[in-house]
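#structure-requests
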Amino acid sequence: MPRDFYDDGSSSSHLRSKIEQHLYINQNRKRVKDNKISTHIKKGKNSYLHIGQVTKLPADFELATITTSAMTGTNAIGFTATAVLNFIGTGGTSEVGFVWSTSDTTPTLTNDSSAYHSIPTVNESFAFTYNSISSGDAGTVHYGRAYATTSYGTSYGAVKTFTPFICLARGTLITLYDYSVKPIEEIKYTDMLLVWNFDTGEFTQASPLWIKQSETATCYNVLEFSDGTVLKTIEQHRIFNKQAGSFTYPMTDDTPLGTITMNYKGKEIVLVNKYKVYENMDYFNVITNEHINLYANGILTSCRYNNIYPIENMRFIKQINKNNNTTTTTISLEEYNEVAKNTIGNGFQIASEYYYGMRLGEQSFPVKDTVKYIKRLVDRAVPKPISLLFLDHQGVMCTTNKIDIGGINITDSSKQFNKEAVQTVNSILDNNSEMQIVVSSDWRYWVMLPEMQDFYLSQGITKKPIGYTSYGKYDNPMKQPIEMRRANEILA
């Protein structure tokens, strides 16, 4: 039987003695045939050694040592890995190269691998480029590391990762709801984009849920359409495919020439040509809230999470039960975050904005895969600016009752927010999705924040306050005008 050996790091002779002891025992038990044995040895955390011929090992043998320097994307379907051979090992190094995997976080030669064309000298950097990542692996973490083989075994460098993304090229014009256009690199979270509502089969508007940070690829695709439109994509950015009734990868057989798609005018156009250009290109991406899609250079584009249901006549075809409800199984946010806790850890949770914005409750992808996908989105998102709405209560939210300084009971029915004031606040929040509430009222002296948050919801305000202003810096606050006091508290 093959057996693994783990060295405690003390010396090569210690490992050698364990190997020879195992060989001796197997020879006495007649487990060695034709003077060969199948044995595995691991030296250190990442090294792997295979002994095929039973021979006496050198008194002091050493495996080669190698460093994985980096693993970076060259485009959405490729990466370049670099490494340095630090030590050639006993007897010299016979082969170096790279191994990688999407499932094994510590890949070995049993996974995908490629040998380098020659043996580098010690401390010489060498590189390997791979450009055949499956389009289905876009957005999937790839684990890779360098390896070096001697006559005594194979050692590995540290694991590096790379995640290919499917995106749109710099300069791609995104159609806004008023039919003006804006380069994708200038899109902000406050923009309202033209999107297609597949639930109702009509144009509508949506703000960006997610905007990707810029990266650079070494090549891009060119898609040409029958109306003269040209769209540049980074690998497999999906376009709407009428014949398939879904969004499909344009550079695969799923989207052949002749594919019919839709433009921002609601007109059908045809894909007439597609090819690849090898030159550097910055790339970006945007996912819109709830509708997920957008119009890029006038072409309806999206990602796989827009394929929630089959599409016919530009509408989702949902199965309806006898109670007139869709039969789709709903996966709760709590279920997603339970998987996130066990899969990602480190306190990562899917925010409600992603749950509702990506319609995760309706998706059919494995929950674990979706959790990892959302984590990758979060890691590569352009940070969202936070707008703060500072709210006082007396004379602002409460317009009828004067509160005596020294105490307040917000459960008192007389301490209710004015309904018109609530509507005004909700309108402001609806028009500014990133805005958060901070309470600047003297109520903060008597009411703890959790109780205040529940009170806001009970009054019909759509968001809880995230905190209170500080008490400000002044000697006698009651002698200062209320406006000055509040300004000092906000600026403190």
